[in-house]
């Protein structure tokens, strides 16, 4: 019998919708289906007397409410999930029997959950943090989970240190702060005592940890996995997700302000993109390599703190996925989705990476804690969408026990599912031997060389941001010895970085380099793929323009901007002194999406100030309006403006001779189009570098 889930793209919540076409009444019932007559007042004895226990509707309602919460994820608690579809366009049949990677043109339903790591469920989106990028592929051979991050390496090499890492990063147990940030003693204490984390620290202190949107992030499976072909031969593979819209991040000062203006910035961005019919897309790429490459590679391919540079093993694009389906219900889908690294399908296997091996235990275990029953696989979002049969039964909340009298195998009734040696999952027959021991391999000992490679691969502005981030974070550490110990590690990574941070922290002298287990290498070449700026979009597609207007603003300029942003496949929002909007020069009202103090410029990729003389005069004494302009300027954004807006620049502290190529006058028809074209690099980084040079 066909499985009811298979072929249904979105299993939804598994429940009934309460929303009927308008006009049709839905009667409120208890969980037992009993119609309710009064949902406003509990049953009382007399008009002002005590509430009666007999009121089963009241008791059931409160009882259910009391049990609404489940434990939040111990890490990655704050997340946002969406549905999508993966389509393969290049077969890997030579390497694997996994049909999801061999059947060209086949569309595989997916569910992806993005997340931050350290913050709790109610924390803000723009924390400086790693972003989770977990993908569940509902393949014809079962569910395949690729539980990745937006950073291709990890802090630690062995899963046994994961609880320590997370304890150190999360709020301190006595005071329960700071929330959703690593800028505190415990985190940097652990890190500075854990040299293997240095490569990851470079990534986390880079702008990768403050992405502009989930839509502009890469994703990585991190570990080396195996592909296994029909002959049982194995090829190593690393998985990459590359966003079609290019990479983009925000500035730290911007992140701090976004968290205040819109703590839901990333989830709202994804929701809006899907709702407006511009769903994000990623290419799925693989780095394939064999044992011979693994042998000659400078580092151990089992070490999750190392990448394989794309210059050494190119990323081959084999397919793409689009995330175009928002959830019907956050709890049923995003909260209850259970990713497990152990979920692989025939043709995909594990390597001996000790972090991956530990993860394979942790995820299944945590789902039982979170979802309360081994039957969490019965929840629609977790159920496979291919036929599924076995003799597992009972337990809390069992939704689909097998029918009939036979629940064991072998049996002589001639019924029930049986193993299939031909199509069933086969583990790769790796030949292993050696003594049992608790040991860290020598081949994992180089902690600094790739950290240096990452640093030298960045553009000057990105290097500056790494230095700024380290100074910021370490300045929040109260213990000077922790600050110094970190700088001693940086001395092994790059002398310039160590100097910058030492100076930023006001250290009297540069600490001696931390003793290194093996001499750091200085000969690894830079890798283009590691820079966000070098992989920027160079177009406005998918970005958002904020258009600040006042009464009397030039209607033709506003219309030109709206047309230009549409032509670039971007979006826009109108910001005005009042939410009711503004009456433009042609007498027509334009609706506002934001009132000026709710529509800070940090929410946009570029801004335009279309003001009348009177409007500019009014905004020149308005703090949020002045912040709008001074922040946009400080965050290196492109700013278009009509002539009266010069007054606002001036009052925002930007003198006429500070106005640079990123400040774009809108005078003639066609200027809006030219402005949008000029916005392609998204930020005018020279502005920030100049400010720093002037200050030095
Ligand atoms: Fe993990 C959740 C990614 C190491 C233990 N992890 C979790 C999620 C992501 C990652 C994206 C959220 C999944 C979701 O959206 O529901 N984790 C990673 C990556 C790692 C990594 C890329 C290193 C390469 N994790 C890691 C280790 C352990 C865990 C070493 C434990 C030994 N991770 C968990 C967990 C979580 C989790 C406790 C919490 C909630 C969950 O699993 O479902 O089991």
UniProtKB/TrEMBL annotation:
Heme binds at residues 73, 113, 162, 359, 363, 370. GO terms for cellular component: cytosol. Its cofactor is heme. Its EC number is 1.11.1.6. InterPro entries: Catalase (IPR018028), Catalase_AS (IPR024708), Catalase_clade2 (IPR024712), Catalase_clade2_helical (IPR043156), Catalase_core (IPR011614), Catalase_haem_BS (IPR002226), Catalase_immune_responsive (IPR010582), Catalase_large_C (IPR041399). The keyword Oxidoreductase applies. The active site is at residues 76, 149. Residues 29-417 form the Catalase core domain. Keywords: Heme, Hydrogen peroxide, Iron, Metal-binding, Oxidoreductase, Peroxidase. Belongs to the catalase family. HPII subfamily. This is Catalase. It comes from Rhizorhabdus dicambivorans.
């Amino acid at each position: 019998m066909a499985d009811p889930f298979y072929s249904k793209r979105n299993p939804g919540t598994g429940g009934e919708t309460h929303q009927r076409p308008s006009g049709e009444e839905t009667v409120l019932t208890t969980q037992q289906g009993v119609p309710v007559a009064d949902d406003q007042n509990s049953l009382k004895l007399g008009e002002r007397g005590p509430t009666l226990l007999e009121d089963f509707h009241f008791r059931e309602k409160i009882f259910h409410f009391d049990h609404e919460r489940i434990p939040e994820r111990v890490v990655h608690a704050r997340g946002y999930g969406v549905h999508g579809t993966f389509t393969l366009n290049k077969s890997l049949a030579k390497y694997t029997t996994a049909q999801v990677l061999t059947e060209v043109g086949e569309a595989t339903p997916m569910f992806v959950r993005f997340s931050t790591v350290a913050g709790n469920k109610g924390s803000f989106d723009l924390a400086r943090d790693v972003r989770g990028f977990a993908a569940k592929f509902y393949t014809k051979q079962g569910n395949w989970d690729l539980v990745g991050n937006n950073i291709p390496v990890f802090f630690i090499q062995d899963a046994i240190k994961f609880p320590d890492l997370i304890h150190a990063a999360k709020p301190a147990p006595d005071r329960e702060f700071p929330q959703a940030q690593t800028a505190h003693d415990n985190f940097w204490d652990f890190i500075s005592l854990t040299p293997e984390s240095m490569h990851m620290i470079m990534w986390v202190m880079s702008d990768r940890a403050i992405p502009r949107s989930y839509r502009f992030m890469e994703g990585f499976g991190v570990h080396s996995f195996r592909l296994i072909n029909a002959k049982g031969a194995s090829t190593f593979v690393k998985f990459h997700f590359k966003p079609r819209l290019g990479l983009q991040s925000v500035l730290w000062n911007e992140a701090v302000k976004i968290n205040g203006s819109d703590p839901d910035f990333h989830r709202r961005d994804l929701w809006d993109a899907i709702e407006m019919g511009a769903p994000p897309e990623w290419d799925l790429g693989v780095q394939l390599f064999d044992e011979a490459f693994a042998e000659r590679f400078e580092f151990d391919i089992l070490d999750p703190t190392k990448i394989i540079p794309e210059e050494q093993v190119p990323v081959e694009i084999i397919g793409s996925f689009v995330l175009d389906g928002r959830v019907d219900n956050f709890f049923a889908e995003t909260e209850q989705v259970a990713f497990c690294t152990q979920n692989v399908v025939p043709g995909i296997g594990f390597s001996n990476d000790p972090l991956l091996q530990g993860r394979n235990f942790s995820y299944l275990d945590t789902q039982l804690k979170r979802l309360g029953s081994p039957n969490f696989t019965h929840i629609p979002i977790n159920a496979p969408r291919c036929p599924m049969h076995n003799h597992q039964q009972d337990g809390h909340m069992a939704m689909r026990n097998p029918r009939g009298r036979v629940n064991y195998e072998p049996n002589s009734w001639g019924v029930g599912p049986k193993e299939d040696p031909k199509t069933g999952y086969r583990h790769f027959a790796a030949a292993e031997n050696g003594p049992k021991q608790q040991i860290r391999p020598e081949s994992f000992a180089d902690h600094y060389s790739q950290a240096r490679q990452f640093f030298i691969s960045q553009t000057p502005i990105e290097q500056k941001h790494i230095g700024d981030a380290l100074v910021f974070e370490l300045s929040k550490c109260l213990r000077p010895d922790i600050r110094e110990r970190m700088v001693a590690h940086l001395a092994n990574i790059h002398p310039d970085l160590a100097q910058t941070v030492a100076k930023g922290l006001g250290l009297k002298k540069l600490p001696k380099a931390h003793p290194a287990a093996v001499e750091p290498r200085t000969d690894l070449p830079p890798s283009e793929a590691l820079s966000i700026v070098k992989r920027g979009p160079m177009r406005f597609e998918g970005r958002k323009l904020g258009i600040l207007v006042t009464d009397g603003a030039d209607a033709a300029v506003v219309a030109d901007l709206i047309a230009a942003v549409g032509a670039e496949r971007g979006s826009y929002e109108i910001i005005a002194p009042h939410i009711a909007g503004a009456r433009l020069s042609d007498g027509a009202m334009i609706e506002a999406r934001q009132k000026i103090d709710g529509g800070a410029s940090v929410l946009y990729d570029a801004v335009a100030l279309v003001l009348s003389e009177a409007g500019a005069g009014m905004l020149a004494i308005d703090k949020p309006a002045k912040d709008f302009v001074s922040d946009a300027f400080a965050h290196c954004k492109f700013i278009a403006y009509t002539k009266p807006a010069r007054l606002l620049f001036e009052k925002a502290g930007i003198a006429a001779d500070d106005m640079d190529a990123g400040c774009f006058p809108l005078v003639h028809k066609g200027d809006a189009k030219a402005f949008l074209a000029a916005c392609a690099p998204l930020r005018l980084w020279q502005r920030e570098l100049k400010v720093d040079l002037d200050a030095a």
